[in-house]
Amino acid sequence: MKKIASNHLLNDVSQYSKHWLLDPEIVYLNHGSFGACPIPVLNLQTEIRQRLEAEPVKFFAHDLEGLLDNAVSELASFVGTLPDNLTFVPNATAGVNTVLRSIKFQAGDELLLTNHEYNACRNVADFIASQSGVNLIVADIPFPLESSDQIIQPILEKISKKTRLVLMDHVTSQTGLIFPVQQLVAELSQRGIDSLIDGAHAPGLLPLKLDEIKPTYYTGNCHKWMCAPKGAAFLYIAPDRQTIMRPLSISHGANSPRTDRSRFRLEFDWLGTHDPTAYLCVPEAIKFMGSLLPGGWAELMQKNHSLALKVREMLCRFLEIPVPTPDTLIGSMASIPLPSKLADTYAFNEKTISLQEILFREFHIEVPIMDWPEPSQKLLRISAQIYNSFEHYERLADALKVLISRSRLL
Asked: pLDDT-derived band of residue 347, with 50, 70 and 90 as boundaries?
């Protein structure tokens, strides 16, 4: 079997980039969007695919169930719960869809979410509202902000006797905030309200102990900060809610006569023929990423967090703006408000290209520019993964300096 070879800059400033296939011509500061899978994990995925194709019937009909059980067990240990509470899904958006489309909302029920909700998941909520008559209630959380109270209070203030479910992020996509979900879930539980946590960014970015958070539902991606292959995510369902959850694809498990496995497991483990190799590589991703530093995952998360803080401070100082949030409310991603002059000059329209595209085309820097809270205002969001070094972000600052100088001449 041909192994995937590494590809890295000769003048690379990170000793760890050799483990990734990232384009050496690009300064990649956007791990948060889709992650990046290391070469050893991709090589394992190739081996599993070859095993599958060598004898597809044996693989799917006889081997897959045990392989999935092993992968779920390893994942459960990593996220702090029991294997029976987890199932694999392709991505966190599919996890949110699964939950919202399984709950039988009644007209007049309220589904509470926040203004930081990821667009795809907000679209799911809008769809459910159009189908069921559930009312969407939005808690407005500011950014920048000064404390976690500015997250907690707006949510609690929007709760009513009609609130059926609260959908909230663990780590927000646009603003990079870590929501205090354990405290919020406890408050909701005391009121008899279910919680659905969109943890797309959380696994691998921060320590995750689901049995301590005690959500009703939680979904998270393995392909982002855990660095598994694309298409690997999980859905946690509290034991007392598993009987009402149905997968997005109803398949053979719905009427299986087997009694050796739960109906939840029978339905969710087989949705039809698909490529399960991303799921099966999750244990290797956990093992490999945890082996990069002597302190394992704890040291990796702290290293990334420290780099994100250092970079954020440097960029805010350069842009002459205050740090927008306390250090404790961000992990390995940080969003920074851009000066209005810069945002306005490079605002995207039919005659211009966006600031994000300019940074990519002219400076070979991949970094997202987010609309917040409206298209006329912009956030720059940086990610810090172990293959990044401070020098990468200095190149970003240099590029911004050029663009700011150019904007003053226009």
From this structure: low
318 pLDDT more than 60: yes
Is the pLDDT at 52 greater than 90? The verdict is: yes
The pTM (predicted TM-score) of the whole model is 0.94
Where are the chain's structural domains?
17-34+296-409, 58-286
Amino acid at 350: E
17-34+296-409 and 58-286 in the same fold: no
Q: Which CATH class is domain 58-286?
A: alpha beta
Domain 17-34+296-409 is found in CATH 3.40.50.1220: no
Per residue in 85-125, pLDDT (tens digit) is 999 999 999 999 999 999 999 999 999 999 999 999 999 99
Tokens of 246: 């149905």
